[in-house]
TrEMBL record:
<dbReference type="GO" id="GO:0005262">
    <property type="term" value="F:calcium channel activity"/>
</dbReference>
<dbReference type="GO" id="GO:0098703">
    <property type="term" value="P:calcium ion import across plasma membrane"/>
</dbReference>
<keyword id="KW-0732">Signal</keyword>
<feature type="signal peptide">
    <location>
        <begin position="1"/>
        <end position="15"/>
    </location>
</feature>
<dbReference type="InterPro" id="IPR024338">
    <property type="entry name" value="MID1/Yam8"/>
</dbReference>
<protein>
    <submittedName>
        <fullName>Uncharacterized protein</fullName>
    </submittedName>
</protein>
<dbReference type="Pfam" id="PF12929">
    <property type="entry name" value="Mid1"/>
</dbReference>
Length: 519
């Protein structure tokens, strides 16, 4: 109850705690022991006692890895630093987190996992009922405790006692590998089940994946960021592992150290500002055609041995023919990142260059025309109070790139246009790119056209088709669904917020990202 009072007194702390997902038990404490005594406990048998005097000492933000066999008990202690952490300002809070790296193969989704007991009373090592208990779920455990304030002298040497206990198992050698970390500042292990990355596009043997916007302390100055210091990495698993992590899907170490097909050393990563904000992109190559994969974004806090976070997995599937090739990071058409019709004899870099040069050449005459318009004169001479010549040039460029560089797929999706090798959108593709396999063309989205009408001076007399019949000859609409039904080139449309869910430690993560990452 003391804790609750503090919450009322310090709204800042309240907000912080709410965002970390610890809003659960403080006003209505669960009684783990009631559950224990009601016979729900898997620990009815006597336990294998810990080796005497062999408790391990945990230190701030330094997780320990250990293996525990069934019915075993392992002990830890943590010396509270009374002049550190949140306690400097309010009260001494201690964050406990753990990950399961491996578990016995005969443990099912609903079987009870390891239990963690914790208390500031040393007698807990002999009587667990003195401690609080938390179970590992989905490979993850977290708890928050505050140092009891009795009097200031007791503050000096507060020790948190922690015990990890394995359930019984019919297999006597059954064992779990776990990590446990304690900190006075943050969660050593975290997870987030909201989308944190997306698949941009795939071709026959590669895929491009980007993270959500990252928070960076220095605006969008990419040159100040060093990608090798990014905590984010990507792991690509065979789709066969879809259920493998079902009971460990919140565990960073299970996925981080699992049997991935491809990991960071084989994935080309960089930052991009293609959509306005800073995002990290991962180019995964050497994939098999027509194959489904799972990709996990993970974040490491200060290297492999200091904890980290795991995010919701992504699924993607490669295309079934080499008719399309994934290109990105073009110099002129810098917002283009998708598969394009190609000739399988051409190298990726040469195809990318051909398209980019073509768009750049076509843009030259337009930019001359734009210079004739009074853009940089006095405010009332500007063609529109809200749109500038830069907006017009930007929208025109995006439109030009979208129509010059068609998006390619080998899937038959509503809205896609089937192209035989002798039937291309224009002579440039027919004669210069020379596609030698049939493909489907993903038509540009109608709003790419509508953007230039809205952003450019009326003098240009841009217009977009209005009737559905004429629209569908050159554009299409975004119908939603698994695959894009039209090709959008431009800064990302703002996706409506789905409201804050308080089950996860997302804001806390952003704090970590801002503090540790992009410096
Ligand atoms: C306790 O925390 C303070 C402030 O962070 C630090 O200076 C000090 O070294 C820590 N003491 C120990 C014993 O770790
Ligand atoms: C696990 O429990 C849930 C609900 O309690 C149940 O729907 C599900 O079938 C159980 N799964 C297994 C594998 O026993
Ligand atoms: C620890 O628990 C024992 C048994 O309940 C109790 O007698 C003792 O006073 C407790 N110690 C502290 C410091 O609270
Ligand atoms: C842990 O379990 C694996 C099989 O899951 C077994 O091969 C190994 O011997 C066990 N280790 C111990 C220390 O019992
Ligand atoms: C980025 O960091 C790595 C290792 O920390 C270093 O070797 C490299 O020189 C840095 N690159 C730049 C451009 O600063
Ligand atoms: C990553 O991409 C860059 C630029 O395309 C290239 O120079 C580099 O060799 C690639 N690295 C790997 C490991 O593929
Ligand atoms: C990413 O940041 C850019 C620039 O700040 C913004 O325009 C865009 O809407 C952001 N995207 C998302 C999904 O928030
Ligand atoms: C591609 O397929 C081969 C043969 O089935 C397999 O050995 C290899 O691991 C696969 N590679 C990837 C990246 O899926
Ligand atoms: C793990 O799986 C559970 C149940 O399917 C789900 O509720 C949870 O959000 C998943 N966690 C992550 C990090 O994806
Ligand atoms: C650009 O304008 C010049 C002169 O008006 C013309 O000859 C040329 O064909 C135009 N280029 C394009 C790509 O339209
Ligand atoms: C308008 O002025 C800005 C800065 O003064 C310059 O960057 C931009 O190129 C100019 N625009 C045109 C169309 O001349
Ligand atoms: C694509 O699918 C549509 C509708 O299912 C069908 O009418 C059309 O023939 C298909 N195109 C090709 C080339 O198979």
């Amino acid at each position: 109850m003391l804790f609750f009072v503090w919450l009322l007194l310090f709204p800042i702390v309240t907000a912080f705690l709410f965002d970390t997902g610890f809003d659960l038990d403080h006003d209505q404490p669960l009684d783990p022991m009631a559950q224990f005594q009601a016979g729900l406990s898997p620990f009815k048998q006597s336990v294998i006692p810990p080796r005497k005097g062999r408790e391990d000492y945990l230190t701030e933000f330094t997780p320990i890895s250990n293996t525990i066999v069934q019915s075993e008990l392992q002990l830890y202690s943590f010396n509270v630093n009374t002049s550190s952490g949140l306690g400097e300002y309010y009260q001494l809070l201690i964050f406990l987190t753990g990950n399961l790296c491996t578990q016995p193969s005969n443990v099912g989704l609903n079987d009870t996992s390891l239990a963690v007991y914790y208390s500031f009373n040393a007698s807990m090592f002999t009587n667990f009922e003195l401690g609080q208990m938390e179970l590992f779920e989905a490979g993850y455990f977290q708890a928050l405790t505050d140092v009891p304030i009795v009097d200031s002298s007791e503050y000096e040497d507060s020790v948190l006692y922690i015990a990890v206990r394995a359930p019984e198992n019919t297999d006597r050698t059954a064992n779990w590998t776990y990590q446990i970390g304690v900190s006075q500042n943050d969660l050593v292990f975290q997870w987030d089940d909201r989308p944190s990355a997306m698949v941009v596009d795939t071709d026959e043997q590669s895929a491009l994946i980007v993270t959500n916007n990252l928070t960076a302390p220095h605006s969008s100055d990419l040159s100040r960021l060093n990608i090798s210091k990014s905590p984010y990495s990507l792991l690509v698993y065979s789709y066969d592992y879809k259920d493998y992590f079902a009971s460990l899907n919140c565990s960073w170490c299970a996925i981080r150290d699992g049997p991935a097909l491809l990991s960071s050393s084989e994935i080309n990563t960089s930052y991009t500002t293609r959509n306005g904000g800073i995002q990290q992109q991962f180019y995964v190559s050497n994939l098999n055609s027509s194959t489904k994969y799972l990709a996990y974004l993970v974040s490491d806090f200060g290297g492999n041995s200091f904890g980290g976070a795991i995010y919701q997995p992504l699924e993607f599937e490669t295309l079934d023919s080499p008719a399309c090739e994934l290109i990105y990071d073009l110099e002129f058409c810098d917002r283009v990142a998708y598969s394009v019709p190609t000739n399988k004899d051409g190298s990726k870099d040469s195809v990318k260059q051909l398209y980019d040069d073509q768009a750049k050449n076509l843009f030259t005459n337009f930019s001359k025309a734009l210079q004739q318009i009074a853009c940089n004169t006095t405010a009332d001479a500007v063609f529109s109070p809200v749109r500038t010549c830069e907006d017009c040039a930007d929208s025109y460029k995006d439109w030009l790139c979208a129509v010059t560089i068609p998006r390619c797929s080998t899937r038959n999706v509503t809205g896609y246009k089937y192209r035989e090798t002798n039937d291309s959108r224009n002579d440039f593709i027919l004669n210069t790119i020379e596609p030698n396999l049939p493909y489907y063309e993903v038509l540009p989205c109608l709003n790419v056209c509508q953007a230039i009408v809205a952003d450019c001076p009326a003098d240009f007399q841009f217009s977009c088709p209005k009737k559905n019949v004429s629209i569908e000859k050159s554009y299409y609409f975004d119908l939603g669904g698994r695959y894009p039904t039209c090709n959008y080139v431009g800064t990302e449309k703002v996706v409506s917020s789905r409201g804050l869910r308080n089950t996860v430690n997302w804001l806390l993560l952003l704090v970590v990202v801002a503090a540790n990452v992009l410096v």
